[in-house]
Design goal:
mainly beta, Porin, 16 strands, 9% helix, globular
Length: 357
């Protein structure tokens, strides 16, 4: 039922946009509509596979100078081969909440709001869509602690406040309801942190310009799952640190180093909570307008005394074919992980495609 409702909504929005374009309405009355495709070929364990992994539709529009609406819907291909059409994100963002509520005031208190369904802002990787990732996949620890292959999203909202400091420093507090996902028939049992019910998150994001060409970012993150439960044994906690260093050498050359580390405490179904740690360190170097190369090391400890320590190395090379298309090769290998070779092609149409540059 939800799939047909979303498909109907998409068709209606496209139809209305076409009708508006033929009337005397201003262009600013129309939403920005984009399409992004993600195709992946995989070779692993002697098996070859190719799939159109995702087709994403986005509708974006400023409702007011400081109020923006973003809607992202996607047709996914699951591991079972089944395709699902679902709402990924739908939220409004108020860049200046005080000015929005008091339009005659010239004051900006640095208070912002995001409300709706969106990817939870924890770390630097989880809020990103697949076409924005630097690698084909997400690191081991991010998949284990933050919603598997697609990321942790929920319905609710967060408030963010820009602290009155000489450097950029923003604190964010969010309250969410986690969306339940129906298990696919024949799907393997899910492993990792399984969030449910109410979710609380907090993030402190700092950015410091070391020079005109260098920037250092530091984030502190906290996540509490099943926050409405009276028993801590039924809750999940994730604490993390993210660090990003960027260096520009020229207009078309830069280096970006990124690291995230998390410590989680959660229990598998029917078991007591146990601790687990994990993280990654990556480096991406763009040495020309068309080429990038990168390496990523990820690690994931045992969950308590169960499982095995996992270590993974990923090697990546990306060729920017145009402003809205790119081709990527990646090789993954390591300890207690499956080795794989990926070939990825991403293309885009519309204003949202600028994220592919």
């Amino acid at each position: 039922m939800n799939k047909f409702l979303l498909m109907g909504l998409t068709a209606l929005m496209l139809t209305q946009s076409a009708v508006f374009a033929q009337t005397s309405k201003e262009v600013t009355d129309l939403p920005d509509i984009s399409v992004i495709g993600n195709m992946i070929g995989t070779q692993s364990d002697g098996k070859n596979d190719f799939s159109v992994k995702e087709i994403e539709l986005s509708f974006q529009h400023y409702l007011y100078p400081s109020l923006k609406a973003d809607v992202f819907m996607a047709l996914h291909k699951e591991d079972s081969g089944q395709r699902n059409f679902e709402l990924e994100e739908a939220y409004v963002t108020a860049l200046d909440l005080y000015g929005l509520l008091n339009p005659n005031s010239s004051r900006n208190l640095g208070l912002g709001l995001a409300l709706g369904q969106k990817r939870v802002n924890i770390g630097k990787v989880n809020p990103l869509h697949p076409e924005q990732w630097r690698f084909v996949d997400r690191p081991l620890a991010i998949q284990q602690f933050l919603g598997g292959a697609e990321g942790l999203s929920a319905e609710g909202g967060h408030l963010n406040y820009l602290l009155p400091l000489p450097i950029f420093s923003q604190v964010e507090l969010g309250y969410w309801t986690v969306q339940a996902h129906a298990e696919e028939a024949g799907a393997e049992e899910a492993h990792g942190v399984e969030f449910e019910n109410k979710l609380l998150n907090g993030r402190l994001w700092n950015s410091l310009a070391l020079s005109q060409s260098q920037e250092l970012e530091l984030g502190l993150n906290y996540l509490l799952g099943n926050a409405s439960s009276s028993s801590t044994d039924d809750q999940q906690t994730v604490m993390g640190l993210d660090l990003t260093y960027s260096k520009e050498f020229a207009m078309d050359r830069y280096l970006k180093l990124q690291a995230e580390f998390y410590q989680a405490k959660y229990g598998e179904e029917g078991e007591s909570p146990e601790e687990q740690q994990g993280g990654f360190l990556s480096g991406v170097y763009q040495f020309s307008p068309k080429f990038q190369a990168g390496v990523r090391y990820g690690t994931l400890s045992k969950h308590g005394d169960e499982g095995n320590v996992k270590n993974q190395v990923a090697l990546m090379a990306t060729r920017q074919l145009s402003e809205t298309s790119k081709f990527r090769l990646q090789y993954n290998s390591g300890d207690n992980v499956t080795s794989a070779v990926y070939a990825q092609f991403i293309f885009g149409m519309g204003p949202h495609s600028h994220v592919l540059q």
